[in-house]
Amino acid sequence: MPHFDLNLALAREDLCRLLAACHYQPEPAFAEERVFETIAAASARIDPALGELAQRLAPAFSDDGVDALLVDYTKLFLGPNRMLAAPFGSVWLDESKSVMGESTAALEALYAEAGFELDESFHSTPDHIAAELEFLYLLTFRENEARRADDPAAVAEALMLRRRFLDEHLGRWIGPFTSAVSAGALSAFYRTLAELTGRFVAREAGGGKTR
Known about the structure:
By secondary structure, the chain is an all-alpha fold. Helices cover 71% and strands 0% of the residues.
């Protein structure tokens, strides 16, 4: 089995988990709990270029302010009339361009196969960007635990599920979604978050090379 870099593995876990958190409604706790500093540290361990990009998040969050970010978040991801960057995979993947389409059902089946359940407190669709990033975190965590245990069969299973997920779901729509966020965002924070998320997911889909 190839050399296992624990620091890199943990950084990838952290970045998946915290990028998911950043796609929920913005709150002062993001800054108070030093979320952006952790993102920057994890990004730098993965790739220096990602680290440089991630360092922009904390000052952008501070400069934009939570009230302005709430307005931007609402226009981008909620509406009320039209979402500028719908955070749902089915809108980008299905011909109907609607929520809860065929791709959502396929994703739910993959979640079930992996034993992944959305928390009861999660009030959006299974293909929301935050849910998909959290699923990527779970698959990354399982792969890392299997490598720690030197369990090739478990590693292979985790990698198979991760490849299917990126090839059939998140990896297919992350590009157009993050491009829409960048185009529609009024805040530097959401433009930076979009670029970081898109580049990280593309890196994961490409087998570890930053694009």
